[in-house]
Specification:
Elements lengths: L1 H12 L4 E4 L9 E5 L2 E7 H4 L4 H14 L3 E5 L2 E10 L2 E11 L10 E7 L4 E4 L1 H6 L11 E2 H5 L2 E2 L4 H10 L5 E9 L5 E15 L2 E13 L11 E2 L13 E7 L4 E5 L27 H10 L5 E8 L5 E12 L5 E9 L2
């Protein structure tokens, strides 16, 4: 209790930026997910900043309507509010409140994003695209989730994240600290928070993970927990030359990510970006793919498939699929393949 009081007094003497999530729902039930660069586990406003909670809610309403940052001084107070949108949905705000005449410290770098767990595609806000150094031609458009995973190193809670992606249960929340790599080889540590919602899109109900991330300088730099085949063999072993390994969502047979240590086949379309064909299996080979998926209930399966190439043609592959245990209730498919010829 004493430590908590001291921390509160420290925050009061030296105001810090707060990152408050809204995830597109302006219902007042907001939580703090970062305080001065220190990640928080969905800390309710009323418990953390009881006296300022009402004013923060009011500020969130104002920036949600205007779509612009808010800077206000008066009555001895100085308040800065910076919103983070994906499209027209407010995912969260960064808030700083000090005394009039007091300057706010530098605002931590942050950004917002959506992951469509039905189509396994991701879309980042302009701020997130800049922070993560996403290529200019890919900004403002969806890209495959696997393309996002190719840019990050996950943490020890990766298996939990995989379960969230596959199960996609509305209302589920998740947080983690992942390392994001830019094109120039530099990297930063990103603390992210997200919640899964169900949303009607194009006549169907899709699962969307709405998230917000902020650069942080705290937390452990731990290795991801390895995925395991149902036969209890690690799948993230050395990959033989010429072999590629992909983790596939069995619910929709879409690529989640390339397995750690696997090379990436540059000639195959998988990124889901504007200047590449959409990832797909040849229509005549889809029955083979479906038979392979159904057969995994009994044993590993094999098949000869054609997949879309980046040049628009079809690339033949020899594929071998095995079940992967995410946990006792959730499975995915490990697809090992070589390019034929």
């Amino acid at each position: 209790m004493t430590d908590k009081i001291l921390r509160q007094e420290e925050h009061a003497k030296s105001p810090q930026w707060l990152l408050v999530e809204t995830f597109g729902e302006l219902d007042g039930n907001y939580t703090i997910v970062d305080w001065g660069g220190h990640p928080k586990e969905f800390l309710p406003l009323d418990k953390a900043v009881k006296g300022a909670a009402a004013k923060i809610r009011q500020a969130i309403t104002l920036v949600a309507r205007s779509g612009e940052p808010l800077s206000a001084t008066g009555a001895g107070r100085h308040v800065e509010v910076h919103p983070h949108f994906v499209g027209d949905r407010l995912h969260g705000v960064q808030v700083w409140a000090g005394t009039e005449g007091q300057a706010a410290p530098p605002r931590p770098r942050a950004g917002a994003w959506d992951i469509n767990l039905t189509t396994l595609t991701a879309l980042g806000s302009p701020e997130w695209a800049k922070l993560a150094d996403i290529p200019e031609e890919q900004r403002g458009s969806e890209r495959s989730l696997a393309n996002m995973f190719a840019q990050v190193r996950t943490d020890e809670k990766e298996l939990v994240a995989m379960k969230r992606i596959i199960a996609a249960v509305p209302g589920t929340t998740h947080q983690g600290i992942w390392t994001v790599y830019r094109r120039d080889g530099s990297a930063f540590r990103s603390h992210f928070s997200c919640r899964i919602d169900a949303q009607p899109i194009d006549g169907s109900t899709q699962r969307i993970a709405r998230g917000i991330s902020q650069e942080v300088f705290t937390g452990s730099d731990s290795e991801p927990e390895p995925l395991v085949l149902l036969e209890h063999r690690l799948l993230e072993a050395d990959t033989p030359p010429g072999e590629y390994r992909a983790l596939i969502n069995l619910r929709n047979l879409r690529l989640i990510r390339w397995v750690h240590g696997s090379p990436i086949p540059e000639e195959i379309a998988w990124r889901g970006i504007a200047d590449e064909p959409a990832p797909e299996v040849h229509p005549d080979d889809r029955p083979i793919m479906l038979d392979m998926a159904r057969g995994l209930a009994k044993s590993s399966t094999t098949g000869h498939l054609r997949v879309r190439g980046v040049d628009g043609g079809w690339i033949p592959i020899n594929a071998h699929a095995s079940l992967v245990a995410i946990d006792q209730e959730t499975t995915a498919a490990l697809l090992k393949f070589t390019i034929d010829g």
